[in-house]
Amino acid sequence: MDDLMALPAAAIVFALGASIGSFLNVVVYRLPAGLSILWPPSRCPQCLHRLGKGENVPIVGWLRLRGRCRHCKSKISGRYPLVEAATGMLFLLVFLTFGISVQTLGYWAFFSWLLTLSLIDLDTMTLPNPLTQTGLILGLVFQAIAGFLPAASWAESANHLMSGIVGGVVGIWLFDIIAFAGAIAFGRAAMGGGDAKLAAMMGAWLGWKNLLLAGFLACVVGAFAGGGAIALGWLDRHRPMPFGPFLALGALLAAFWGEAIWSAYLQLFFPLN
């Protein structure tokens, strides 16, 4: 019976995530352009024809239209259904890992922010302040609620909130120091100012310990990806590369497997006799 109930629940969660992903596509397109994310409703970016209800269904609408506007026949980017599907999978993964909990609701919001910021960084090499600032505030609220509900203790809530505050401070200070040191070492900007703000937001959600892990993982993956892209001729050595997506990936890995990674690290280098 539990297995039978799990399938509809998983489908509902995936559909919810895909619907949120559809809205994230709107934010990614409109926020950097200074447009309202609420009005007008979804429309073709070429002819501005308003999408009908059937055309606006996440993933399915794009497939039914075969990737083209029904009105002007212009091509609609395949990134739209990919973002919707990716968001749906993230929502499902969080739900399967944390079940029905405050953690699930919090991480749905956190990963939605991370995905939106990553896509905007890829498109524009910027990380908008409104998103990083609201994400930081939500992270602190999440820490306070997550600490209060299990134990119903104001002291535990305060401890969680302090963990988020320390994580935010560590994030912005650490990455500001890295950016300053990189500018001195290389004679040019080594990291954008938005990366430190994104790190502060991540610290508010993850705490300082998992923030450090996320930053380390981001640097490792970014170094391999950047080195590989340069070696293959896909990226010029002097061309800046957005670091936000790597930070987001590091945050995702730390959120799911941070404790397991830290435990393995301590057992490997500091085994108990």
Describe this structure in words.
The protein has helices at 2-30, 60-65, 79-98, 102-124, 129-151, 154-186, 193-231, 244-269. The chain has 273 residues and is mainly α. The relative contact order is 0.09. The mean pLDDT is 86.
Would you tell me the structural class of the helices and strands? mainly alpha
Poorly predicted runs of 5 or more residues: none
Number of alpha- plus pi-helical segments:
8
Kindly estimate the percentage of residues that lie in beta strands according to DSSP: under 5%
Percent of residues in helices? over 70%
Please compute the radius of gyration using only Cα atoms: 20 Å
Shape: globular
What would the average pLDDT be, to the nearest integer? Answer: 86
